[in-house]
Amino acid sequence: MPGNLIDWQSLEEKTIIPGFHGKVAHSANMTFVLWRIDAGAVLPEHAHLHEQVVQVFEGEMELTIDGEVNKTFAGSMAVIPSRARHSAKALTACRVMDVFYPIREDYRPGGKPLIAIAAEQS
Amino acid sequence: MPGNLIDWQSLEEKTIIPGFHGKVAHSANMTFVLWRIDAGAVLPEHAHLHEQVVQVFEGEMELTIDGEVNKTFAGSMAVIPSRARHSAKALTACRVMDVFYPIREDYRPGGKPLIAIAAEQS
């Protein structure tokens, strides 16, 4: 097809940080990550220029954005603004989809870690 | 929260075209539409500048992009490039999420129909 039809089942899952197992797909402008997150897994605080929208399909996650703690739940959508500091803790096992704009170049095959890109842009 | 936590269940569903019942949420850069689509519903061919990514949660949909027919399925993601002509037919009842970049201004409250925006930009 002129666009792209992706079967999420066929994509390889990678443990990107401990407890966070993700499959990554890119469109022309956005990056999509389908996560399987272990109960208790913690994503340390960080920030990036990308706007990030989190669709929670299963489970509960504590999501802290610029110091405010929010409890996400299945059927919720959380918006993390560009450059907002954020961290996460999975209160239960979760299934989540992140949508990033612009593309997470660091999530492309062979992509540089985000910290290296940030250093180039600062 | 500094961002936004949205409960999809709390959003109003609107029948945007016959058989296509959608709930709409916007982030700073993207528009998200959670669709409940009736079996047999048809979306006539159209095009827009927005890139559109379709996450199929349930059901089967025939998605024609620039004349090529594709059969999407639960767990698939279809990418419709900016300005590509596309149409859809729900082969079964479907649950689907569309993600658009940039924002669908026509889906904001009081937004002008897309055709009016296109006329302004042409």
Describe this protein's structure:
- The structure is a homodimer of 122-residue chains.
- The first copy, chain A, is mainly beta and 122 residues long.
- Chain A has a single domain (15-102), classed as Sandwich (Jelly Rolls), CATH 2.60.120.
- Chain A is built from one helix and eleven strands.
- Chain A has one helix spanning 114-121, and strands spanning 4-7, 14-17, 20-26, 31-37, 42-46, 51-58, 61-65, 68-72, 76-80, 86-90, 94-101.
- In chain A, the strands form two sheets. Chain A has a six-stranded antiparallel sheet, with no helix packed on it.
- In chain A, a hairpin with a 4-residue loop joins strand 3 (20-26) and strand 4 (31-37).
- The first copy, chain A, starts with a strand and ends with a helix.
- The model of chain A has no long low-confidence stretch (mean pLDDT 92).
- The A-B interface holds A 1-9, 25, 27-30, 32, 51, 53, 55, 65-66, 68, 70, 72-73, 75-82, 84, 97, 99, 101 and B 1-9, 25, 27-30, 32, 51, 53, 55, 65-66, 68, 70, 72-73, 75-82, 84, 97, 99, 101.
- Strand 9 of chain A pairs antiparallel with strand 1 (4-7) of chain B, so a sheet runs across the interface.
